[in-house]
């Protein structure tokens, strides 16, 4: 099985590559197994440096390249009569710290009926759709942020 171990910032235009579609959940992991679009099973054991964005490239130790695309998954799609209503919904959803994907005409989040009801209560439409999920980086960057806070607290306690 091919194991991809490195992330690439960019690739030469002429370099060939395979393609894999991965859910948001898998793209957050540094280790996973997947099946390429051509049916080949692969593994990944990547440096832990955050999410694989759609369109990013990873490589095996001997230079075989793989492009990672966001797979369409079940999401809640929020649409609104006006941009201001959409802005209001983004604010309220952002306050709940859920991964949220923003587009000029819609918001997307992972299925959650409590949040869907809250948004509908604000007068917006919520529909379940199949769509690639590429949320804003704030909500899931929280993990590293929490570690920093706990180490600052630990340092603080160590000195007192």
From TrEMBL:
Domain of life of the source: Bacteria
One GO term (biological process): protein folding
UniProt-recorded Gene Ontology molecular function terms: nickel cation binding; unfolded protein binding
Subcellular location(s) of the protein: Cytoplasm
SUPFAM superfamilies xref list: Urease metallochaperone UreE, C-terminal domain, Urease metallochaperone UreE, N-terminal domain
Primary localization class, coarse: cytoplasm
Organism listed in the record: Acinetobacter brisouii CIP 110357
Keywords linked to the UniProt accession: Chaperone, Cytoplasm, Nickel
Chain's role: Involved in urease metallocenter assembly. Binds nickel. Probably functions as a nickel donor during metallocenter assembly.
Protein name, entry field: Urease accessory protein UreE
One GO location term (cellular component): cytoplasm
Domain UreE urease accessory N-terminal: residue ranges: 2-66
InterPro entries: UreE, UreE_C_dom, UreE_N, UreE_N_sf
Family statement drawn from the similarity comment of this UniProt entry: Belongs to the UreE family.
CDD domains for the chain: UreE (cd00571)
Pfam families cross-referenced by the UniProt entry: UreE_C, UreE_N
Gene (name only): ureE
């Amino acid at each position: 099985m091919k194991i991809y171990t490195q992330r690439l910032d960019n690739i030469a235009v002429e370099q060939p590559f395979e393609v894999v579609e991965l859910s948001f959940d898998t793209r957050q992991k540094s280790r996973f197994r997947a099946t390429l679009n051509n049916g080949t099973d692969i593994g990944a054991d990547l440096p832990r440096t955050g999410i694989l964005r759609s369109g990013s490239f990873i490589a095996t130790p001997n230079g075989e390249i793989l492009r990672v695309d966001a797979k369409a998954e079940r999401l809640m799609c929020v649409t609104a009569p006006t941009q201001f209503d959409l802005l209001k919904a983004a604010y309220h959803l952002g306050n709940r710290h859920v991964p949220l994907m923003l587009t000029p005409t819609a918001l997307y989040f992972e299925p959650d009926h409590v949040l869907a009801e809250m948004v509908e209560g604000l007068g917006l439409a919520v529909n379940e759709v199949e769509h690639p999920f590429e949320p804003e980086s704030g909500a899931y960057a929280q993990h590293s942020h929490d570690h920093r806070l706990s180490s600052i607290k630990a340092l603080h306690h160590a000195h007192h």
